[in-house]
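In response to reviewer comment 3 from the previous cycle, which asked for concrete evidence that the modeling workflow produces usable outputs, we include below a single protein chain processed end to end. The sequence was submitted unchanged, and the resulting structure tokens are shown without manual editing.
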Amino acid sequence: MTLFRNELQNKAEEIKNNLKNLNIDAAYDEESFRDYLVMLDINVDGNKYGKVSVYYKPSKETYSLKNKISDETVSKKVDEAWAKLNGAENYGAESGIYEAFVDGSYISGVTGYGAVIYLGDELKEQISGTILDVEFRQFGGELKSVIEALKWCDKNGVKKVRVNYDYQGIEKFATGEWKGKNNLSKEYAGFVKNIKTQIEWRHIKSHTGNPKNDEADALAKKAATETSSTVSKHFITLEKKALAFIDFINTKENFYAEYVSAQNGEFARMRITDKKSNESGIAEVIYAKANNITIRQHKNHIETEIYGLWQEFLFLQDFGK
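The workflow returned the following structure tokens.
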């Protein structure tokens, strides 16, 4: 029996109905279900445009969507439908209200920040950088991203902006619901209070497949990674390989994988679980000699199974789909 099938099917039906209103057909069958995943084929006027994968995270009762659609217009409509389904649809350009998506990141001793600003579907600005004070790590990057986005709005005469965030302190410190206990949060609250642009706040859960939120996250990570003298310049490649391996594992009947963390910018760590035995193991994607990417484990009960999955994954990447 497939775990969480009902939850996934209900979400898939919601997606189908939303896409139908946009003249997009989405279809799935029994073979597309895994314990934490369902895949939908996307068709328009009888033409196939690829798939979307919907993941369910039971620990947080959240869903995320991964878009694998070849046509940009269709892909954009799917993202819009997903945003509407999650209560994250954007203002249209005719409203005159801008949308800012902000995020922060801390990687190997460097705090990065990122923001993207839109008016309707038009990207108006990308903002990113690093801050010298890393005492507050990612928290500092989160607040700095808002400050820089609001500075841009003020400079460009923006009357109203909606700030979309995933760290709740961004709104709560600004509105006074949370009282700042350090100079950073106090200075942030004071800055927001004195800004001329009218601000609307909206919380968007992280890693739920919101493409604009992901853009800001990517900018923050890129800024931190490129600036760090201790982070391997190849780490982004490691992380992409780890995420691809996780996607591969999550198509299997008996295994489930999730990303854990980036450790010191030197390897990407994940947790893999055998659903039959409920045994879990930690695996790390690392660089070996001659810049070859490999996997490292730490004596777990399913070490052999994980290694076998890794070999299958590498074979398919080299010789198949």
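The CA atoms of residues 37 and 55 lie 5 Å apart. We consider this sufficient to address the reviewer's concern, and the full set will be provided in the supplementary archive.
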